[in-house]
Structures are given as C-alpha cells and as structure tokens.
Design a protein that fits this description.
heterodimer, A: 288 residues, ABC transporter involved in vitamin B12 uptake, BtuC, B: 242 residues, alpha/beta, six-stranded mixed sheet, 25% strand, globular, disordered C terminus
C-alpha cells in the first residue's frame, strides 16, 4: 500500500514535468495549428544552452535559467519569423514536415557540437534533497519544484490568455487569422510571440529535465512523445487539462514501474491509446 | 479636397473572370456611397481590394491621398479602414466585449484603458450593452450582425466598408441596423456599402454606383440610378448570362 501511494505521489510530480513539455506544444497548436515535431529537440537545445551557461559562468542551473529562458524566447521568435511563417497556410502538412526536418538537423547539430555523450546539469544538494511525509513516502524537493512551477506556469498562461491584450490577440488569431488581420493584428508577429512564449516555457522545462535526468543529442523525440500524449490525454480545451494529462501519464508510468520497471514506458503508451480510443477529444476536451 | 478613398485604374481578374477593369472611384470624406450590381459582379471583391485581403492586378488604391496599394491588411485597418462582412465572423469563443477589445486595442491602437472605454461606448451604441459577456458564438443573427458592425467601429475607422449587412433581417431589425449606420455616418465616418436590400441602402447613401462586368455603368443619386434603363435591364436579368 505504501509503495503504491509512493508511486502515485512520484508519478504526480513527474507529471508536472510532462505537462511543462506539453503546454508549449498545446499553445502553438492552439494559436496557429502548427504541430511542432522539433519541440522535443528544442527542449534538448535548452538543456545544452543551460549546460554551456553553467560551465562558462560556473552558475547553478537554476540561476542559468535567467540566461536560458530569454535566449529560448528569442530563438522562438526568430524561428517563427524566419522559418515557420513561410510554411504556414491552409495546409497543415508543410509546417509539420519543416519542423520534422528541423528536428533531424538539430539532433545532428547537437551530435557535432557536443558528441553523443550523456550530459547532465548539476544542481548540488538540491538534486537529492527530500521531504519525508511518512515512512514510505518522501518527496524530492526538485520534483516538487517542477510540479509547483508547472502549476504556476499554467496559471500565468491562463491569466495571460484571458486577461491581457496579447492573450486576446492569440485567441483572435487562433479563431480566424483572416479576420484578426482585418482587426489590425499582424499575424506573423503574433505567431512569433506565441512561439517565443512556447520556447520560453521549453527553456524552463529543458533545464529542469537536465537537472533530473541525463540527456544526449537523441533525447528529444521521447520527450516529444510524452508531451504529445499529455496534450491528447488532457484534450485541447484548456491548459489545466494538459496538466491533468501529464499527471495521468506520470502516475500510470510510475505505478507500472513498481510492478515491473520494464513496463514503465509501455504502460504510459497503453494508457494514452486507451484514452484515444475511448475519448478521442481527450478526457477534458470538447468535441469540435 | 483630398478624397477619403480613391481607386485609380484598378484591375482585378480571377482567371478569365474580370471583376474590375481599369476601375476609377473617388469617394469624398464623409460621403456615403452604395455599390449595386448583380450577384457575382464582384462587389465583395472590390471591398477585398480596398482592405488588402486581395491583391491588385493593376492600378492603385489611395486613402486620404496616401497610396496604400502595398500596405498589408492590418496596417490598412490601423490607419482607419474597417470592414463588416455579409456573414458575421465573430471570434466565437471570445465574449462580445473581448471581440471589441481586439479591434480597439490593435486596430484602433488604443491603450488598454482607452480600448476598454471605446469598447464599452461602442457596445452601448450598437445595442449590445446587455451582451458584453456573452460568448459571441451564441448571439442571435441580429446581434451577430450588430457585433460585426460594432467590431469594425471599435477600430475607430475613418472609412467603413459594409458588405450586405441588412440581408436576412426582418423589417424592424433592418430599420434598427439602418438607424445605427446613419448614426455612424453622422459621426463623420465615410461609408461604402454593398447592399441588395435597396430600401435600406437608399435611406443612407447619397450616391449609388452599379458594378457590371468590371465597370461602373451608373453613378449618381440612388433614385436616378435605379431608374437608369441600363441598370433596370441588368436587374431584370436580361443580360445576366452575358
């Protein structure tokens, strides 16, 4: 019983990280119907930028976020204006293919620059610090921080979308880009801002991932899959659904691994397929 | 006087279909102009050329003396050109008030406080005061049409382009909308209005043009234009297949 409870608690916290991978994806898909296959590799890019920043300036990885997040936001804006905007149109396929190509290029770029070795960001005592709840359950400070940050990011994003002018711009462009233009919105700029925001979140998620686990040039695609699964389990209606999707994925994986560690990844995919079969719009999504 | 809107030798064709052939049009500031013509004559296309939704094949569009032919749609909105569609196209997931805020904040380039003020004012003017927080997708047809107009007004336009906004409304609803357009006109806005509901159009505009096969074939006071034999012929459908 204690093991099970512990597995659930750990899973919830991993879910926070999955949700953070996922919200950037969901935001981009929501605003501009772009399926960004390079999202996972951008997470890894953030991790490498974090690595360079920590090594060059001898920073704590969490302090390095001050550098990583703005860089990733700039990368996002430039990427959208310079590359993705040129592929956008009625057809969803060209941007998807371009992002797939970008993914391949990035992975090979990482390989050339950083070799295939595993890397990790070291955060000192924080990595092992934990809070003991009962004899069977103790919570790592780092995973807890990830969950709390995920909740804060989602709350901030919801507030941004529903209470600010730029949020209304995102929603207007998402609803009808042609009419949005007629209302004075520069869609290309709005798309650029959405990608900048998405990658700022990726910056945070990438650094947290890199403190928690090893990464290498090929890590991106598996992160992408967890992100996609969290988005689809939660449904596209709200970012809280995405958080729930991430948490469900994390809990299923974590519980399955107490039965047999080999089941961890498989169980997550099976849970995803079950949701997709029974509720194609996701657990919290509305049919459109 | 510098015209509010000027089309100079504007041409536009979709493959073999000529919508505009070296078309000229001069609209004075605060003039209200109606554009008539049979279905498929390309009236809506003309509006698209003015907003920049469609590109010109040849010629130029000028707005208060400035050549805007190469300006993107959003810039044209910001300098004061707004359009209301025949089929209202609100941002359905957003509230009525938020729809107006988008227009006021970005099209009208207003500060947030000013945009809020402007949106509330337009909301009242357009008779939508009770629906501020209603999701736009749930409005009735009349209110959707009001919102379509309100959203255009929220951008604080100097030139308002109306595309068959009276269609599909009952008589009292139509009068209601016409009264609103009159008030907008009285506030100094220049209006170009495409409309099939003639009595609605006639009660607002002081000048009517008839677009047929890429040319304006009549231009004058609306009562005279509709009695023009050439126009009557077209509307009787005699030449409709030509």
């Amino acid at each position: 019983m204690g093991d099970f409870a512990n597995a659930v608690v750990q899973g919830v916290m991993v879910g926070g990280l999955y949700a953070m991978f996922a919200i950037g994806l969901a935001l981009i898909f929501g605003v501009m119907k772009l399926v960004n296959i390079a999202h996972g590799d951008l997470i890894v890019l953030a991790a490498y930028i974090g690595l360079v920043a920590t090594q060059t300036f001898a920073l704590n990885p969490l302090v390095a976020l001050i550098v990583v997040i703005p860089i990733m936001a700039l990368v996002g804006y430039a990427l959208q204006r310079g590359l993705f905007n040129r592929t956008m149109g009625a057809d969803l396929m060209p941007p998807l293919l371009v992002s797939f190509g970008l993914s391949v290029i990035m992975q090979n770029g990482f390989l050339a620059l950083f070799s295939a070795d595993n890397k990790r960001l070291h955060a000192g005592a924080l990595e092992v610090a934990s809070i003991k709840l009962t004899d069977a359950i103790s919570i790592g400070v780092l995973p807890l921080m990830q969950l709390v940050l995920a909740i804060l990011v989602i709350a901030a994003l919801q507030a941004l979308l529903y209470r600010t002018a730029i949020g209304r711009a995102f929603r207007a462009v998402s609803d009808d880009p042609r009419v949005a233009q007629l209302m004075g919105l520069d869609n290309k700029h709005v798309f650029g801002l959405a990608m900048a925001l998405s990658l700022a979140i990726v910056g945070l998620a990438g650094v947290l991932l890199a403190i928690r686990a090893n990464f290498d040039p090929a890590t991106g695609p598996t992160r992408l899959i967890f992100g996609f699964e969290a988005v689809i389990i939660g449904g596209l209606s709200s970012f809280w659904g995405t958080l729930a999707g991430g948490v469900i994925l994390g809990v299923v994986q974590s519980v399955a691994s107490t039965i047999d560690p080999g089941l961890q990844v498989l169980a997550g995919h099976v849970a995803f397929l079950i949701v997709l079969a029974l509720r194609p719009h996701g657990l919290f999504g509305r049919p459109t | 006087m510098i015209p509010a809107l000027e089309l100079r030798q504007v041409s536009k064709a979709f493959r073999a279909i000529r919508i505009a052939t070296e078309l000229d049009l001069v609209v004075a500031p605060n003039e209200a102009v109606g554009v008539l013509g049979p279905n498929g004559a390309g009236k809506t296309t003309i509006l698209g050329l003015i907003t920049g939704a469609l590109s010109l094949d040849a010629g130029a569009v000028a707005f208060f003396g400035r050549d805007i032919s190469r300006l993107p749609t959003e810039e044209r909105c910001r300098i004061g050109i707004a359009r209301a569609y025949q089929v209202p196209q609100p941002f359905g997931e957003m509230s009525v008030f938020e729809n107006l805020m988008v227009g006021a904040a970005f099209g009208g380039r207003a500060t947030l406080a000013r945009a809020r003020e402007k949106s509330l004012q337009v909301l009242e003017e357009c008779g939508l005061g009770g629906h501020a927080n209603t999701p736009a997708g749930r409005l009735t047809l009349l209110n959707r049409k009001r919102l379509e107009l309100a959203r255009a007004l929220a951008t604080d336009p100097k030139l308002l382009l109306l595309d068959e906004i009276a269609g599909g409304l009952s008589q009292p609803e139509c009068e209601d909308l016409v009264a609103l357009v009159r008030r907008v006109h009285a506030s100094g806005v220049t209006i170009v209005w495409i409309e099939h509901v003639l009595h609605a159009l006639m009660s607002v505009v002081s000048r009517a043009l008839v677009l047929y096969q890429g040319k304006f074939i009549a231009d004058g006071p609306p009562q005279e234009v509709i009695r023009d034999p050439k126009v009557a012929e077209i509307y009787m459908g005699i030449e409709a297949d030509a």
